[in-house]
Amino acid sequence: MSSANVLFDAPGPRARRIHLISSVVGGLVIAAVLAWFLWTLWGLEQITPRRWAPIFGSEAWIYYLLPGIRATILAAIFSITIAFAIALVAAMCRMSDNRVLRWASTLFIEFFRAVPVLIMMIFALAFVTAYTPVPVQQRPLVAVVIGLVLYNGAVMAEVIRNGVASLPAGQREAGLSIGLNPTQVRRMILVPQALTAMLPALVSQMVVVLKDSALGYFILYPELLISARQMGSRFGNTTVAFLIAAVLFILINYAVTVLAERLEKRLRRSGRSIRAKDTGYGPSMDVTAMEADLEGPQGRAQDLRPGGRGSTRGIGTGEGGL
Amino acid sequence: MQDIPELIERFDFIQGFGLVLWLTLWSAFWALLLGTILVIMRLVPIRTLNVVGSFLVAALRNTPLTLIILTSNIILYVQLGLELGPDSVTNNIRLAILSLSVYHAAFVCEALRSGVNTIPLGQAEAARSIGLTFSQSLRHVILPQAFRGAITPLGNVLIALTKNTTVAAVIGVGVVSLSMRRAIEFRPDVLFLIFLIVAVGFVLITLPMGMLTSWASQKYAVRR
After folding, report:
1. In the predicted model, what is the mean pLDDT of residues A280-295?
2. Does this UniProt record's set of keywords contain Calcium (chain A) (predicted)?
C-alpha cells in the first residue's frame, strides 16, 4: 500500500484535467521562482560563463576539488572503520550479563549520542594538541576522526543492538538448547546475523559520516568544503564553487545510498534481512534514529514511497524514518 | 572544580546556551512549518509538486549542514546582499535560523510521512466516503493523525536540531562552540572541565526533550 494513493480516489476525467492544470501551473510557478533566482545571480555576475570557466580547467580539480574529495573520503573511511569496531564492542558490552560492562557501555553510548559532534571535534583537537605526539599537520584529521568515531560508534552500537533485538526468539533458544552459554549465543549466533541484516543500515550510516566530515571546516581540516571555498577565492567564483561542492557531496552520498539499497535488495532476496527496523540516517548528528521504531507507533508501513510517483531514491534505505 | 563558575562567567557559557535554545526554538517552529508544506507537496495528487518535493528532500538530506549555513552567509548575505536584520550579528543569527529550518524541514517531512504511514487505509477511504474533498480529509483526518503518529521521530529531529545549532559557529554566531574554543585557548589547563561543562549542558537540554517525547508519544498515540 502506498501512502499517496490512499489519500484520493482514482481520478475521473474532470479530476484528471484539474490535476494536469494544477501540475502545469505549479510547475510554472516553481520554474518562475527558480528562473528569478538564477536571473538575479546572473545579473550580479555570479554564474556567468567567466565564473564557470575555471571548473573546466585542470587547476581547479588538481589543486582544490580532488584533494578536498580525497580528504573527505579519507576521514570518512577511517571513521567508519574504527567506529564499527567500537560499536561492535559497545553493543556486546551493552547486552552483556556483566552489570559493570553493561552500565559502562550504556553510559558511553548515551553520553556520546547527546554531545554534538562539532563539540567533540573541538575538544579532540585541543586534546590531541596538548597530550599526544601527533604531528601538527595530522592533528585536524585525527580530531575529525575522533569526533566522528565517538558519535557514530555510539549510534552504530544501537543499530547492532536493535538488529539483535529484532531476531526471532527461536535463534537464541536454539543456541541455548545446544548447550551454548548466553555470551556464546550472542557472539556466535545473534550478532553475526544482526550484522548481516543491519548491513544496509550500517552502510547508510556512512552518509552521516560523510556529511559530518564537513564539520572539519570549523577546525580547519582541509576537506571538500574548505577546498571549495579556497577555490572560490582563488578564481573569484565563490557561488559556483559552493554549487560544485554541494553537487559533489550529493553525488557521493547518493552513491553510498544506492549501494545501501542494493545491499538491502540482495539481502531481502536471499531472505536474510530482518524486516528492516528502520535506522535510516538523520540530520547530521542525529540522535536516536532507531528509537523512532523501537517506541514508534505500531507497524511501520512497508512501502513509504508514494506508489511510484516521483522519485524517492537517494533518501536513504531506511526510508520514511529519520 | 572551583573553576567552574569562573569559566562559565568568563566565557559566556550561559549566553551561549541561551542562544542554542533561541536558535532551536525558532528553527523548530519554521522547520515544522516548512516540513508540513513539503509533506503536503509530496502527498497531493499533483505530479510536479510531488517531484519537486521529493527532489528537495533528497537534496537537503544529502547536503552537509555546514555547507548550507556557509552558503546562507557567503552567498545570500555577502554576494547577494540579503539583509535579514539591522546589524551583522542579528543578520547572521537569522541566517542561521533560516538554514537550520530549511535543513531540518526535510527531516520533519520524512517524520511526518512516517506518521502518515501509520494511518490505516480505511481512514482515508472513510473520509472520502463521507464526502470530504482531498484538502478536507488532509486537514481533518490525515494530518492530525500523522502528527500524533510522528511524535517520536519529530522529537528526534528536535534533539538533532538542538545539537546542530552548534554548527552556526561557522558563521560567527556566538553559540557554545565559540565559547568553548575561546575557553580552550585561554585556559588550556582545564581542558577536560571545559568539555564537561559543554557536554553536561547538552545532556541537560536534550535529556528532557527525549523524556518529553516518549511521554507525549505514549499519551497522544492513536490507539489502534
Report:
1. 36
2. no
Q: What is the DSSP letter of A216?
A: G
- Nine-digit cell string for B96: 542561521
* CATH classification at residue B44: 1.10.3720.10
pLDDT at residue B223, as a whole number: 76
Closest CA to B61 of A318, A46, A92, A292: A318
Q: Is B177 domain-assigned?
A: no
Mean pLDDT of the region B180-205:
92
Q: Which of B62, B117, B160 has its CB closest to that of A320? A: B117
Q: Which amino acid is at A252?
A: I
SS (H, E, C) B122-149: HHHHHHHHCCCCHHHHHHHHHHHHHHHH
Cα–Cα dist A91/A95, whole Å = 6
Question: What is the predicted ipTM?
Answer: 0.92
Residue A309 CB coordination number (10 Å): 16
Does residue B218 fall inside a structural domain? no
Q: Which site among B49, B118, B163 would you substitute to test the A interface, given the most A Cβ atoms closer than 10 Å to its Cβ?
A: B163
Class of the CATH-defined domain A65-269: mainly alpha
Residue B3 is assigned to a structural domain of this protein: no
The domain total for chain B is 1
Residue B136 domain boundaries: 18-172
| pLDDT beyond 50 at A165 | yes
A148 close to A75: Cβ distance less than 8 angstroms: yes
Domain ranges of chain A: 65-269
CB atoms A211 and B64 under 8 Å: yes
Amino acid at B11: F
Q: Is A7 on the interface with B (CB under 8 A)?
A: yes
Q: B211 pLDDT band (50/70/90 cuts)? A: very high
**How far away is chain A from the Cα of B212, in angstroms, using its nearest Cα?**
13
- How many other CB atoms are found less than 10 A from the CB of residue B24? 22
At what angle are helices A139-165 and A117-131 packed, to 10 degrees? 130
Does residue B94 form part of some domain? yes
Residue A294, sorted as left (phi over 0), alpha (psi -120 to 50) or beta, turns out to be alpha
